[in-house]
């Protein structure tokens, strides 16, 4: 297996070196090919080095993950992003996902799970942290006053079930065992949810975030 | 226990009783009337007026003032915490002003039946004049001590602000009426009577002339009060940041070699700051999500284990949800204390007809069947009492799945008894 080339973006140098050390401890399956502390540096270096996966911070002084994804995807649509952040507001996280990140994990994640998450987004699947799964359930499961917009796809019962298990802290493997599905099927459901989240009407998500006083 | 309760009640009486602190600023004689007024939610000028009236009623006022001097604690500024705590001041309440007035009248009527009474022709106008003076606010008061707390306090505010003109007119009318009463008295000679009536008329005239100016004065005072409230708010914010963020940063620096402690401190502070910045600042959790946030933060702080929490939906707290949160808290404490897991996950979701709660850890797990029957050592009593019994009492259910070596998940569910319409209205907010 060739190592996955990862690019790190975070405005805290200390945090970058910590993540780098942890990823290096995973036995050479992940190779950090570059890092940046500002949006401008990140965009330039990502386009130059073409990493397999870019890990972006949601919140940075000059725009954060959303700005980077928007700038990179314009020139290189195949770029793959994973958002890594402290517990941010639902609106910020959802905005980064909608900009094109294939997953969101919190900084409290352990090295092994982070490695899993990187491999997963690299393989084209989605990665949900419990927190993001909670946001999604909140936004899709009827807590909006009038989800009348046909654009806003509802989650299937199975997708809801998977989201609930992830929100409860289950890994994909544990979730698969609990509802007697294969990990691959769980990944398919999660990717479908991610697509719905990225396609859903922006206005309604904003209204939802407003209502929960998350803005 | 009986004696414990008595002690408690005596202390309670002391706190709610007559004790108070002398006023240091804004005092007239010894700061006694003002201090009493501050503590008991009365206007200082009402207390002062009552004392003046009673002083003429056979010197009762002087006795009362002496009693106040005995009851008073020294001024707050000079002795914070040095003397016994006098309890929290009562918020301003006009009913309390009225109460002081009625007590005064009662005492006056009582004194009237004794032979130290100066006689109705003197006392009745005196009382009316003092009442007018009190309404006019000549004795002065510390404006703006009371932040708006109730509609009544708002009414008080209006009295000193927009309705200043009405107050001036009513006060002047009372004073004039008192003077006319004196003038009309039979023991007063003709010349004096004319003089008094002229004085009364002048008081009324001057009052009408000065009303706009007095109104503006009151307006300025309320502007100044608004400014003071603003600067007080800024001071409160600085104070809050100092007490919370700066203290935590100091603690983090000191415990830099203990990453677990550092993480807990940082998470705790983050939670606290978020609540303060964006949350409801009212005390006590008003909704389920804030209640869950609070209990999670508390358990995290006490047991140094990070807890990932996810809450979907929300609703106002009620008695059932308080019990539900109690059981949820116990499950979190168990997971933090006994599982040995690095992190605990809490998930709460408000469904259409129930609230679901899950507490999950990937710790060492235990034999759930054995744990259901408390051992001789009383271990695991928390599960049967704090979780299962609590959930049964509110008509809910609890289930504990645990596999030794793999972890534990506690599932709590409480049914909701609300009509669908209300549920729909309250759940997103």
Radius of gyration of chain A: 17 Å
CATH architecture assignment of the largest domain in chain A: 3-Layer(aba) Sandwich
Principal-axis shape of chain B: elongated
Oligomer: heterodimer
Give your account of this protein's structure.
The complex is a heterodimer of chains A (215) and B (429). By secondary structure, chain A is an alpha/beta fold. Chain A has two domains: 1-124, Rossmann fold (3-Layer(aba) Sandwich), CATH 3.40.50.2300; 128-215, Arc Repressor Mutant, subunit A (Orthogonal Bundle), CATH 1.10.10.10. Chain A contains ten helices and six strands. Chain A has helices at 13-24, 39-49, 65-75, 90-99, 111-122, 130-140, 157-167, 172-178, 183-199, 202-211; strands at 4-9, 30-36, 53-56, 81-85, 103-106, 127-128. Chain B is an alpha/beta fold and 429 residues long. Chain B has two domains: 2-232, no CATH class; 287-426, Histidine kinase-like ATPase, C-terminal domain (Heat Shock Protein 90, 2-Layer Sandwich), CATH 3.30.565.10. Chain B has helices at 2-16, 32-40, 44-56, 60-71, 94-112, 120-136, 151-160, 164-184, 190-254, 259-278, 288-303, 319-338, 368-372, 381-393, 420-426, and strands spanning 20-21, 72-73, 307-312, 344-350, 354-361, 397-403, 407-415. In chain B, strands 3-4-5-7-6 form a five-stranded mixed β-sheet. In chain B, strand 6 and strand 7 form a beta hairpin. In chain B, helix 3 runs antiparallel to helix 6 and helix 10 (259-278) runs antiparallel to helix 11 (288-303). Chain B is elongated.
In short:
Chain A is of the alpha/beta class. Chain A contains ten helices and six strands; from the N terminus they run βαβαβαβαβαβααααα.
What key phrases describe this protein's structure?
heterodimer, A: 215 residues, alpha/beta, Rossmann fold, Arc Repressor Mutant, subunit A, 2 domains, 6-stranded parallel beta sheet, 10 helices, 6 strands, globular, B: 429 residues, Heat Shock Protein 90, 5-stranded mixed beta sheet, two-stranded parallel ribbon, disordered N terminus
